[in-house]
User: Which sequence fits this backbone?
């Protein structure tokens, strides 16, 4: 996927009302009649189902707040002509979940006059998003990432027929722009979703349409507007250790205060500590471990990882070496097995008695927020700067206990070659939103 390039301009939620013609919350509470949903915009184009709607839970787990399509006869269409016609620009956005894998391309949303008008496809056999134009040419966006039984926010944007510019966004991230000739077509009573000629099987949660091309920033804002609004207090839940490695957090010459009520302070074992500037430019706001052989230890008995306990270790760090090996956290269990998160060959690794290469490169010389999430002692997720980059890597953690080490392996070998300003330990998994919230808290 391509990262959205922000313009740097601040935009508000009100921007998303500009040009919004149709908004259909597909929930039972938005029914106008037994088979018709209200359009929440002033243009009262309501939408009618070919069958009585079947409701299901939405992406937030709320009952009767999304519709499910049976893959054979269910589809929906506005009851009067739409105001927008091509070649004008437009944007269509919807939430969907693919629940079945039929051996053909199923049609998500589009127009079909019987003469080959433009269509939007979802190929649920190979997880591509397709656009099918009036000339009979199919264009695929590979890597759309439409996992089955998972809610996704899908946006298709047309910059105008004259520009031949089409782009698809999945969960706020843009896929490659497609350029192809498209002749004009009308969004009239032929506009449909759930079918064009092959019915879609899955769930829909919301659908919106604009008579303009949203910007990249607006599409990102739209996706983020659906996320639950978290407060900083969410990040206190399950927090069993919080160590700011700054000079002003020292409670003795060699001891950093644990900022949680558990009071598990960390003490320096060897060497002379050196402070440096942190990621926000604060003097003496981080510890510099570069080329120095020292570390900090504690006994964090509130933290466990086994078949019934999850754990998350979040560290704000900067790795200096172009090569080499260095551990930034480690722990040894009662059987003498060493567990550690470390860098080797500029790649993130995890050790549980055997080395596991995550395959994700370390951004050398940059401050990053790194989170290792150990799930039921057998799966590892890694988040970098709030985004999941490794999912369900297989590991084997029999039982986490014993001495906790920051800045080196348990025996003082493979010291971390870089700087660290903070470490947090949780006795649970953080949500995707919480990982992003925590990373955002470090921004200047």
Assistant:
């Amino acid at each position: 996927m391509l990262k959205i390039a922000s313009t740097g301009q601040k935009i508000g939620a009100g921007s998303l009302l500009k040009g919004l013609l149709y908004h259909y919350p597909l929930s039972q509470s938005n029914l106008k009649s037994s088979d018709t949903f209200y359009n929440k915009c002033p243009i009262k184009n309501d939408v009618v189902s070919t069958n009585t709607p079947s409701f299901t839970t939405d992406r937030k787990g709320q009952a009767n707040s999304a519709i499910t399509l049976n893959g054979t006869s269910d589809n929906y269409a506005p009851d009067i002509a739409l105001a927008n016609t091509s070649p004008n620009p437009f944007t269509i956005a919807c939430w969907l979940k693919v629940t079945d894998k039929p051996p053909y391309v199923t049609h998500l949303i589009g127009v079909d006059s019987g003469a080959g008008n433009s269509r939007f496809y979802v190929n649920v056999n190979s997880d591509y998003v397709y656009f099918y134009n009036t000339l009979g040419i199919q264009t695929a966006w590979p890597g759309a990432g439409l996992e089955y039984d998972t809610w996704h926010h899908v946006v298709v944007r047309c910059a105008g027929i004259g520009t031949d510019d089409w782009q698809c966004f999945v969960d706020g991230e843009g896929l490659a722009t497609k350029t192809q000739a498209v002749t004009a077509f009308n969004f009239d009573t032929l506009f449909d979703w759930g079918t064009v000629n092959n019915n879609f099987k899955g769930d829909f949660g919301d659908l919106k349409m604009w008579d303009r091309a949203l910007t990249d920033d607006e599409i990102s804002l739209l996706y983020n507007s659906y996320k639950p609004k978290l407060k900083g207090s969410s990040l206190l839940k399950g927090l069993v250790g919080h160590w700011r490695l700054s000079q002003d957090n020292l409670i003795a010459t060699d001891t950093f205060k644990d900022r949680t009520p558990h009071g598990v302070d960390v003490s320096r074992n060897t060497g002379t500590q050196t402070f440096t500037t942190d990621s926000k430019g604060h003097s003496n706001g981080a510890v510099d471990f570069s080329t120095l052989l020292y570390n900090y230890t504690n006994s964090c008995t509130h933290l466990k990882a086994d078949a019934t306990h999850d754990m998350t270790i979040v560290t704000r760090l900067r790795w200096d070496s172009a090569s080499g090996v260095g551990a930034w956290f480690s722990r040894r269990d009662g059987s003498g097995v060493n567990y550690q998160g470390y860098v080797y060959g500029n790649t993130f690794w995890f050790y549980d008695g055997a080395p596991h290469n995550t395959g994700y490169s370390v951004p050398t010389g940059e401050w990053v927020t790194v989170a290792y999430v150990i799930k039921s002692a057998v799966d590892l997720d890694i988040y970098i700067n709030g985004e999941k980059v490794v999912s369900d890597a297989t590991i084997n953690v029999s039982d986490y206990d014993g001495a906790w080490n920051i800045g080196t392996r348990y025996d003082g070998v493979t010291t971390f070659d870089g700087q660290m300003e903070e470490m947090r330990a949780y006795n649970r998994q953080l949500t995707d939103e919480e990982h992003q919230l925590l990373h955002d808290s470090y921004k200047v």
User: Anything to note?
Assistant: The helical segments are 216-225, 432-440. The chain has a mean pLDDT of 75. The CA atoms of residues 371 and 383 lie 5 Å apart. The longest helix spans residues 216-225.
